Amino acid sequence: MTLHPEIAAVTDRIIDRSKEKRAAYLALIQRERESGNDRPKLGCANLAHAYAGTDEQRERLTAGRSMNIGIVTSYNDMLSAHAVYYRYPEQMKLWAIEAGATAQVAGGVPAMCDGVTQGYQGMELSLFSRDTIAMGTAIALSHRTFEGAALLGICDKIVPGLLMGALRFGHLPMLLVPGGPMRSGLPNKEKAAVRERYAEGKASREELLEAEISAYHSKGTCTFYGTANSNQMMMEAMGLHIPGAAFANPGTKLRQELTRAAVHRLTEIGWNGDDYRPLGHVVDERAVVNAAIALLATGGSTNHLIHLPAIARAAGVVIDWEDFDRLSRIIPLLTRVYPNGSADVNGFEDAGGPAFVIRELLRGGLMHADALTIAKDGMAAYGRKPVIDESDSLAWPELPATSGDTSIVRTIEEPFSEEGGFRILAGNLGRACIKVSAVERDRWTIEAPCRVFSDQQEVQDAFRAGELDRDVVVVMRFQGPRANGMPELHKLTPPLGVLQNKGFRVALVTDGRMSGASGKVPAAIHISPEALGGGPLGKLRDGDIIKLCAEEGILEALVDPAEWAARDHAAPPPPAIGTGRELFAMMRIGACEAELGGSAMLAAAEL
Question: What cofactor requirement does the entry state (predicted)?
Fold first, then answer.
């Protein structure tokens, strides 16, 4: 199928904008490639240090004739999604030996959970944990004793951080090894209903805790389609998984065989073979566009409007929100997965999953079919779903032509919507994003007086006091990267949802992030420039009328222009300390705007 002309035009726009940075990046990884295999060049004492920690592989490592795979792991056992990685390294070492290679754990990176820190101080470290992970990945690979790498990570900042660091070693073949989602527990819609009842004082803490534990009950990612599972959809679309690896459950034969296949495939795409596929060549302009398309077609997390630009910049590719907006106008919405529907990701997988979506997009000329991937068969391989066949082997049969459940996944001929769920908003309050895939159309435009806050607890207190029981635009400012690390504001979802359920016209306007689970309440987020440093959110006063219109792309304070120009900016809150936040001051000071990725590391490196 011929590529849609608008996708071609957006891709050309990105290529043209990225020309200088991409050329510099490709020159970098070419120099690294031409320097050859580093292990034979290392001194004997250096090699002895690198091999001293292993017994069973030492002889093969010392011989230096086989590929050595570096494993970068985000394992810990307090995060359900990453607890599954406990046994992976020892298994992967065995599978490497099967393929005539070796494997070593190159290093570990931190993995924090927004679900644990949501609404509390630790959330202000969340976005910058991504830069920390990127730097940790670079440290792990800096020993230069590896000819390829396997990246073990799955959740919100972990996958972007792993890729941002790994791409600076883009001459190496690499892939992502996911762990899969937990099996379904309490349905997400029921969990959300208990949260709203608790916010209204109609459910006890014990009832809320029971509901939450029933929803988040075992190892694996959470089952809603938030940032973690949007990560997995994007990695499939970028060709960085073994095809179909995203949503196989932990502890299954299928999950084990997909991980085994990942190790074997790494040995096939190394630089000594005839199928060399370095990470920096796989992640190009086409891959970045494919990831954006997959995100839009599935109503994925708004967090990736920050993460994907940051990943792209690490590879010398510059994508902006206008690219997302233009793609959203022509990409159909093919899924309804919570919070954009009632099904969870297990239901999504059973109905066809990422493979069905990618197959449909390719069939409609809505993805770059010629993009390089780690799979032998290119993007077409990601349109087939893995199974364990009658011979107990891994296989990828063709998918049925029809969806397994049309309430969850649909074909391009019968989408849920003719376009994706993303818009840019702009006006005298700056430039913002809004996700509308779960917002009812009659709420795409909200015009109401605002109430201004700079702390989430202030919103909770005002809600409990009944001060927000009216049409209202809740403004949360001084929540940007340079102010406080740009925390997610998902804890505001239940009270705002309650207000909307009461019939009030409600919206959120903020320079912070919303969750990957953002849903039915319209939210203008990631506002740039942020309030700290003179952004226009600092001029707002309680009672100002704000117009938010996703139809027309408007975000305006309806204030007399002369008065608006004369207003002073509100003073920001003092810098917060405690919970280690003071240690991240250098990242806050150096962070770039959200549209560029919200990264201090990339800004400092001028990437």
Answer: [4Fe-4S] cluster
> Number of structural domains, the chain?
2
Whole-angstrom distance, CA of residue 518 vs CA of residue 501:
16
Beta bridge partners of 475: 452, 509
Q: Annotation-wise, does 222 bind a ligand?
A: yes
38 pLDDT above the threshold of 80: no
pLDDT digits (tens, 9 = 90+) for 236-286: 999 999 999 999 999 999 999 999 999 999 999 998 878 999 999 999 999
- Reported as a single tens digit per residue, the pLDDT across 109-122 is 999 988 888 888 98
Is 60 a member of any domain? Answer: yes
In a domain, 197, yes or no: no
361 touches 293 (CB < 8 A) = yes
Is 431 found in the same domain as 306?
Answer: no
> pLDDT, tens digit, for every residue of 60-116?
887 777 899 999 999 999 899 999 999 999 999 999 999 999 999 999 999 998 888
Return d(Cα 155, Cα 41) in angstroms, integer: 37
Determine the average pLDDT of the residues in 1-10: 96
Tokens of 73: 């792991």
Other Cβ atoms closer than 10 A to 130: 29
Question: Which residues have C-beta within 8 Å of that of residue 347, sequence separation ≥ 6?
Answer: 184, 337, 405, 408
What tokens were used for 354?
A: 């990422």
Check if the beta carbon of residue 219 is closer than 8 Å to that of residue 85. no
524 in helix, strand or coil? strand
Contact 548, 446 (CB under 8 A): yes
**Range of the structural domain that residue 285 is part of:** 5-183+218-395
Tell me the C-alpha distance between 199 and 493, whole Å.
10
196 within domain boundaries: no
The string of DSSP codes covering 179-245 is: --BPPP-S-HHHHHHHHHHHHTT-S-HHHHHHHHHHHS-SSSB-SSSSHHHHHHHHHHHTT-SSTT-
State pTM to two decimals: 0.94
Give 314's contacts (C-beta < 8 A, 6+ positions apart): 134, 163, 164, 165, 167, 168, 602, 607
Q: Which residues on adjacent β-strands are paired with residue 510?
A: 476
With a cut of 70, say whether residue 518 has pLDDT above it. Answer: no
Q: Is 568 exposed, middle or buried (0-12, 13-18, 19+ CB in 10 A)?
A: exposed
Quote the mean pLDDT of the chain: 93
